[in-house]
Amino acid sequence: MTQKSVVADRKSGKTHYSGAEFLLDALKKENVEVIFGYPGGSVLPIYDKLYSSELFHILTRHEQGAIHAAEGYARITGKPGVVIVTSGPGATNIVTGLADAMIDSLPLVVISGQVSTSVIGSDAFQEADVLGITTPITKHNYQVRKPEDLPRIIKEAFYIASSGRPGPVLIDIPKDMAILEGVSTDAEPKMDLPGYQPTTKPNYLQIRKLVEAVSGAKKPVILAGAGVLHAKAAHLLKDYVEQQGIPVVHTLLGLGGFPAEHPLFIGMGGMHGCFAANMALSKCDLLINIGARFDDRLTGNLAKFAQHATVAHIDIDPAEIGKNVPTKIPVVGSAKEALKELIAQNGKKPEIEEWTTQLTKWNEEFPLRYTHEEGVLKPQRVIQMLHEKTNGEAIVTTDVGQHQMWAAQYYPFNKPNSWVTSGGLGTMGFGLPSALGAQLADPKATVLSISGDGGFQMCLQELSVIAEMNLPIKIIIVNNGALGMVRQWQELFHDNRFSHSIFQSHPDFVKLADAYGIPGYKVTTEEEASDCLDVALATDGPVLIDFRVKQKENVFPMVAQGKGLDEMEGV
Amino acid sequence: MKGILSLTVNNRPGVLNRITNLFTKRNYNIESMTVGPSEQEGISRMTFVVDVDDEAVVEQITKQLNKQIEVLKVHDITNQTIVARELALIKILVTTQSRAEIYSVIEPFRASVIDVSKDSLTVQITGESDKIEAFIELIKPYGIKELARTGTAAIARGMQIAPAKSATIV
Ligand SMILES: Cc1ncc(C[n+]2csc(CCOP(=O)(O)OP(=O)(O)O)c2C)c(N)n1
Ligand SMILES: [Mg+2]
Q1: Which CATH code for domain B83-153?
Q2: A298: which residues sit within 8 A by CB, 6+ positions away?
Q3: Is the CB of residue A272 below 6 angstroms from any atom belonging to ligand 1?
Q4: Residues 124-153, chain B, touching A (beta carbon < 8 A)
Q5: Site from B67, B71, B72 to mutate, A interface, most A CB atoms within 10 angstroms
Q6: Nearest CA in chain A to B62
Q7: Angle at A551 between CA A546 and CA A555, to 5 degrees
Q8: d(CA B160, CA A113)
Q9: pLDDT at A7 over 70
């Protein structure tokens, strides 16, 4: 039965629907554009209904690929990414993705099959306690006990996933619940969530306090995180910054929330942030955190973080405020509502020329830098060339490691929803499948999937989907023949003892691409790189490029673990 | 310090798991916990006594609990005047010689004997945790055969006189 016919059948008096029918009908009502999934025994009834449904389903080649693709889709659109997996191994294969989405606040609705209710608890074939496993890594989860509950549960799941602080919601559907029929009431399902009321509108008095703090500040700085992007508040951030003239530092995940080319943009802060940004965070007298969670990779040693600053923190999740950094001015609410209110207040502009001049000077004196070496392809240069050739307008997804940090450093973004990376969990294998989701979210965009040679091999099976759909993703491997970031730490902190971080062998990535039907190129020099990128960007479909870069290159500057942000090395 | 949280939650499958999971995930130490039906149907009341470094942690726990979809309300009653009670059942070894002496200990604590056998007595005692602690210490020398304690159940007093710790009538 198709989705259309559910409606038609209602008119014709059909009153009973199976759980699978309820599910697909509800997904249709949520305007789901794409489902990433992988079938198996316990979801066969659902897949059977999908067979004749108009819902667009993509068969990834691994459940981890499905969930990372859904994350990429969610990051670009702000809408929940939808995933269907089977029970047992299907469900355990998405655990990493759930944890990733949870810590990076990405909205997902994940359907997992389960063994039939009659055998739950008996160690049945492909049974796993998925509710138990996923409770700490989901915003909420459900197990369906009556098929007719599905319309309400799906509605609640989409609402929970995408409102407040977004996050993943999992719905475990025992096989018999997908088959069994329930009575449909034509009425819109009513959500029953008395314990869930996210606050979006900020408290007026707190806003006033912040306005006053700003007007008297000598060295204010805004730390803008991904909360700005989730709230779709980038334009408001710009308006507010221009009204008050306050400089902006971004977190890794916040990149794109404020234009990199703006004179008040200082740079990214944190472990591999730029000197001026970290000095701004260290020396400020007023720190306005908008939608960031003071992650330890951002703050460095907490005892040395923003020691002289009054801290204000705008966050939609009250639990983030004061969690890591004592906060004088807590503002619970969405970045959008808070910024609107701040702009409306039109407070007295602080006099901070000395401060902004100092920050600009630091940026001129200590810019991000690397050394050119004759005849050697530098990874930083590869990223810069990608930036030049795409006019800085591509969607960039990355994996985790050195290449990720270089991408953050050398591919400045001027617009939101351009940057897809695994920040909180640091999940290798995220890059390629998330590019797939990002490309589907924005079919016209140029999507660059930048991975290391290590992480690329953790989810490379999705090349098959990319080829099949002829998605024009440009797949960049920053190949240093090593688990570069691990190698770097071993060089710096473990006395050059490169324990299991240098690869002894690799597949021929060009041939590998070829095997999937994707044109592949190997590049060893800057000249080759330039030509190859021109060809790749002019190609309609996917292209893979294996950039052979210097193995011993390190990511700098760097705040070593335990150090304060003003103790950067390699500046 | 000890923090006391009183919360109402939807009485649905898995709720207890969600809450204890949260304590494990966030590395909070539960000293005691009670769950039972509340005055409203379908809603349970839980009381947690937590062992924490300072009040900021109690605040953080409160906020994290509040994020749970199945949690309806969280009251941090650490600094409120409250009535708190715990119940203990204690099976004490007795001999003909010690019997009278044990009774004399039981009496001032307003504990009651709820089961008697040839060589043991089972006592029920309710009160604040400290009182039960004191009673157990006194009774220990006679020999405790079995001990079962509930956690603390607590609610704020109807009238909040001072923001100090309660002066509860034992
Ligand atoms: C799933 C997973 N396993 C292990 C790690 C630890 N780790 C972080 S970076 C890194 C090296 C990544 O190597 P590569 O993909 O080649 O990227 P590079 O650092 O060389 O750019 C490793 C192993 C991780 N982040 N994720
Ligand atoms: Mg590498």
Answers
A1: 3.30.70.1150
A2: A223, A251, A252, A269, A270, A271, A273, A292
A3: no
A4: none
A5: B67
A6: A319
A7: 105
A8: 51
A9: no
pLDDT digit string, tens, across residues B13-70: 899 999 999 999 999 999 999 999 999 999 999 999 999 999 999 999 999 999 999 9
Q: Could you give the residue range(s) of every CATH 3.40.50.1220 domain in chain A?
A: 204-365
The whole-number average pLDDT for the span A171-179 is: 98
**Percentage, residues of chain A above pLDDT 90:** 96
A204-365: CATH architecture: 3-Layer(aba) Sandwich (3.40)
Nearest CA to ligand 1 atom 1: A428
Cα-based torsion angle of the residue sequence A351, A353, A356, A362 in order, rounded to the nearest 10 degrees: -140
Q: What would the pLDDT profile of A54-63 be if each residue is shown by its tens digit?
A: 999 999 999 9
Read off the amino acid at residue A257.
Answer: G
Q: Is the CB of A147 under 6 A from ligand 1?
A: no
Q: Does B155 touch chain A (CB under 8 A)?
A: no
Q: Which fold has domain B2-82?
A: Alpha-Beta Plaits (3.30.70)
A41 and A87 Cβ atoms separated by less than 8 Å: yes
Q: Is 0.90 exceeded by the ipTM?
A: yes
Residues in chain B within 8 Å Cβ distance of A323: 60
Domain ranges of chain B: 2-82, 83-153
Tokens of A563: 């150090």
* Ligand 1 touching residue A399 (CB < 6 A): yes
Which A residues 105-134 touch B at CB under 8 Å? Answer: 131-132
CATH entry 3.40.50.970 includes domain A3-183: yes
Reported CATH class of domain A379-548? alpha beta
